[in-house]
Amino acid sequence: xxxxxxxxxxxxxxxxxxxxxxxxxxxxxxxxxxxxxxxxxxxxxxxxxxxxxxxxxxxxxxxxxxxxxxxxxxxxxxxxxxxxxxxxxxxxxxxxxxxxxxxxxxxxxx
Length: 110
Fold this sequence. Notes:
By secondary structure, this protein is mostly helical. The chain is 59% helix and 0% strand.
């Protein structure tokens, strides 16, 4: 199966990103934002505990998460501590494009 190519180049995306501006969150969305913060805090705590459980062993951590440790294991990306690991994991910093493509393909099969 051939991989779809994006109609946008990295330069196009970078140029468009420069025109983005911050927006105010409507008051009704603030409750949703607080719920998301609480979920993120709980997820952060869970990921930090997992990091400590395996004493920072990325292979074991990512195996339990059923995720790919490739990006996290690069010397310049290795987390310094449990908090940094959890934060970067939640933000998607360790995601690989190939992993996201596989996840989308699995969703479309359902």
